[in-house]
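EI: anyone free to look at a 201-residue chain?
SC: sure, send it
EI:
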Amino acid sequence: MSAKLETLSQNLQKHFEDKLKSLKLALGELTIEVAAADYLVVMTALRDEPDLRFEEMIDLCGVDYSTYGDGAWSGRRFGVVSHLLSIAHNWRLRVRVFADDDEFPSVDSLIGVWTSVNWFEREAFDLFGIAFVGHDDLRRILTDYGFIGHPFRKDFPISGHVEMRYDPDQGRVIYQPVTIEPRENTPRIVREDTYGDPAHG
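SC: here you go
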């Protein structure tokens, strides 16, 4: 671990020793995990503490862990992962939190901490169905107003639930149940018997 990451790790442990569920180093970046109950307090401190000072929220995304590790995952299903940047200290941090309820996943909104998180939280709500408590304008951002479901959930059907098409008789776009038959396309691969044999070129 570099001296800079070691300093960051020590600062994180100093401020959040009782709130860190895990602190891991991978690929030159630190990742911490916090409980949903501590999420807003920890994120506010990450921005405000002078020896942490993460001024910038780079990204926030939802994650569905239901089939993670080929189905070997045994933790909570829905998580929120944030990437933070400290310009003052020139370091980055990944923060992960899991929603306590898999049926109605929700975590606190960070809109009061970083206003740039607005559309990221709306996207995670739209695509994963994760509610952000305290967000003042939580509505769909990528799917249509009447869209049913959350398309990035692992159990969402590949073809969706409804399709839209233009109806020339009605002179407008209409929605109807999906008419596509699910099918599996298996590519047919034809190779010569000597394919990959250096002796035969």
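EI: The chain has one domain: 3-160.
SC: 👍
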